[in-house]
Design goal:
The complex is a heterodimer. Chain A is of the alpha/beta class. Helices cover about 50% and strands about 10% of the residues of chain A. The chains are: A alpha/beta, B alpha+beta.
Chain lengths: ~325, ~300
């Protein structure tokens, strides 16, 4: 399986970076100060084929947070990321006739549209939950929050523009930030802060809503152009998919599946601020949370579903993942 | 800004360089170099430091100011001080003949002259600042913090407003002086942004910032809240009066048009006004205000 790492220059610079630089320029900030520490220069951005690495993007975001601390940048990027782009994946998305095809497009062309997060879906009869996790690297809190804000403002402006009647709610994995005014102004759906997961929930009866201004012919043309394009995924996403397929898999088995040595896998994951155990824990945590809070299952049932030998073990593990016992979490929801 | 001011003041920079060079050549021609062992290095370090610092002030002053009387006076004043310090510094390396001992006794005079010029400059600067403060009325209250300034709209940011509301809330609790808040949201701003691009959208925000600031009372404060929202603080004001002013701001905003690609685009806003609640903190008051605005927007839609 092919995965990408945070030092590889494979992210298109016109997705987030060019927006950041332009917004900084409009605010009288020297673009080269924003690019400090990335070995990129303002003139480099003119090259249409210029790709950047995730690490470079992380440093630019950290610089931006220091130079423009009022928190509006992520929201501006989110609002502009889909506008006026000739990118084929964006064309497929904006010309998907219904919400359902939109979601399918988002999942299918995730790397081209937003390579930084991947999505896991959990279904109940009434509701679909989309849980988002970092795909490439476990970044610093400020960078992670930046990407979350880009995602929610991108979704909010897409809904306002193309699905004005759609209602969703979103829970965010951090406490209410000090720049709450940006959320007030940019986000039109219900938000919950301080939840254990970054999760978007959608009532299933809305799934067939039509997208305004979609043209199915344009969609097919753009889709045809994308046929032979590779669809790589981030390293964390790659390990997650392996764990999802076989939850009991060990680090050694995973490494051999990827044709690398165990030591190499561990080293690579460490370079992305995570470990095999952390990814596996996070996967189980999300399964357990979904079973307990959404499906309302008992501890016994969840422990069984996650292959725990006994209940005490499960309770202990759960407390380690979420900082709370299963009953406390039930009380919260 | 830096580069444009560098170009603007190029005559001053050349003048400075010329005076520096003539001072240096004067010392070189008229004096004899001291022996290496004769130089007092500690003294040299101190005087060299002063010379460099005055030079840094001089350059910083020129880079941050437009042309004008105050700038000229500041340039001459700091420049004279700088030359005085430079002479003092060169003194460490050169010995002057007995015939020009007057030079060493006169080296402090440019500094005195320079300080007099600077005092004059500061007097004019004070007058200038009073004018600038006047033009910032309604955009600023008692407190200046340039890091909280919003470059796009020309107003302060939400953070500045939050600090002001915090102050007003404590005043409210102590002396029972109720105050009001109003918020404005531009209708169809995202559509405008998509249609005409970021630059035009920024111009619209700047226009709106100006209109809001012009049409409130001297005691009120307008800030940019976030994105296309603007917030006004009405200190010690009854609800009916605050609402009246906000309504007037709304009327004037709706008079505003922008001319884009031969199209005339009208500005329309949603707005709401509340009396601040002293039981609630700043964030909850803002939540309440924004919640009411969302309700208003839904009703309007």
């Amino acid at each position: 399986m092919q995965f990408i790492e945070n030092h590889e220059s494979c992210l298109p610079s016109d997705q987030i970076l060019t927006h950041l630089v332009e917004f900084a320029r409009q605010r009288n900030i020297d673009p080269n100060r924003l690019l400090r520490g990335t070995r990129l220069f303002y003139q480099d951005l003119d090259n249409p084929n210029r790709c950047i690495s995730f690490k470079q993007l992380e440093s630019v975001i950290e610089n931006a947070a220091k130079l423009m601390p009022n928190g509006e940048l992520s929201f501006l990027v989110g609002q502009n990321i889909l506008v006026g782009k000739q990118d084929n994946a964006v064309q497929v998305l904006l010309n998907s006739t219904s919400l359902q095809t939109c979601i399918r497009t988002l999942l299918c062309y995730q790397f081209s549209l937003f390579p930084y997060y991947f999505v896991n879906q959990y279904h109940t009869r009434e509701t679909t939950y989309f849980v988002l996790n970092p795909a490439l690297s476990q970044s610093a809190q400020c960078v992670d929050q930046f990407f979350s804000e880009v995602v929610i403002s991108m979704i909010s402006s897409l809904l306002k523009w193309r699905f004005p009647h759609l209602r969703i709610s979103v829970s965010l994995p951090y406490q209410q930030p000090s720049h709450i005014e940006q959320y007030h102004s940019a986000i039109e759906f219900e938000l919950t802060f301080g939840s254990p997961l970054f999760c978007i929930s959608l009532q299933n009866n809305q799934i067939n809503q039509k997208q305004l201004g979609a043209n199915p012919i344009l969609r097919r043309i753009a889709q045809r152009k994308l046929i032979h394009q590779p669809r790589p995924i981030g390293i964390i996403q790659c390990i997650w998919q392996i764990v999802q397929r076989s939850p009991q898999i060990s680090c050694e088995q995973t490494a051999s599946q990827l044709n690398i040595s165990t030591a190499t896998l561990k080293r690579k994951l460490k370079a992305h601020n995570t470990s095999f155990k952390q990814i596996k824990d996070r996967h189980q945590q999300q399964m357990a949370l979904f079973h307990i809070t959404t499906l309302g299952h008992s501890n016994e049932k969840v422990a069984q579903a996650l292959n725990f030998s006994d209940l005490t073990n499960f309770r202990r593990a759960f407390k380690r993942w979420t900082g709370k016992t299963p009953n406390e979490i039930r009380g919260l929801s | 800004m830096l580069l444009s001011n560098l170009k603007l003041h190029w005559t001053y920079f050349i003048l400075l360089l010329a005076v520096q060079l003539s001072t240096l050549s004067f010392a070189y021609i008229m004096g004899t170099t001291k022996d290496f062992s004769e130089i007092n290095w500690l003294d040299t370090l101190g005087e060299g430091g002063i010379t460099l610092m005055t030079l840094a002030w001089l350059i910083a002053t020129l880079l941050s100011r437009p042309k004008g009387k105050v700038t000229t006076l500041l340039f001459l004043g700091i420049g004279a001080m700088h030359i005085s310090m430079l002479l003092d510094f060169l003194d460490e390396f050169f010995r002057f003949n007995a015939s020009i001992t007057w030079l060493t006794s006169l080296e402090a005079f440019p500094a005195v002259f320079g300080m007099m010029l600077m005092s004059l400059a500061l007097y004019f600067w004070h007058q200038e600042q009073a004018l600038i403060n006047h033009s910032l009325q309604k955009r600023e209250r008692f407190y200046r913090e340039h890091s909280l300034y919003d470059f796009i709209s020309g107003l302060y940011t939400a953070e500045y407003m939050k600090r002001q509301i915090e102050n007003e809330l404590s005043h409210f609790k102590k002396y029972n002086t109720p105050f009001c808040l109003a918020i404005f949201d531009v209708k169809g701003f995202s559509h405008y942004n998509r249609q005409f691009g970021n630059h035009c959208a920024n111009h619209l925000l700047s226009d709106i910032g100006n209109i809001v600031a012009v049409n409130i009372r001297q005691s009120d404060l307008a800030c940019r809240y976030a994105a296309d929202r603007f917030i006004i603080l009405f200190p010690q004001t009854e609800f009916t009066q605050a609402k009246q002013i906000a309504q007037q701001v709304n009327n004037l905003l709706e008079q505003h048009v922008s001319y884009q690609h031969e199209q005339i685009v009208r500005t329309e806003v949603n707005w709401t006004c509340i009396v601040a609640n002293k039981q609630l903190d700043v964030t909850d008051n803002l939540n309440k205000l924004n919640h009411q605005l969302s309700k208003q927007k839904k009703m309007a839609a």
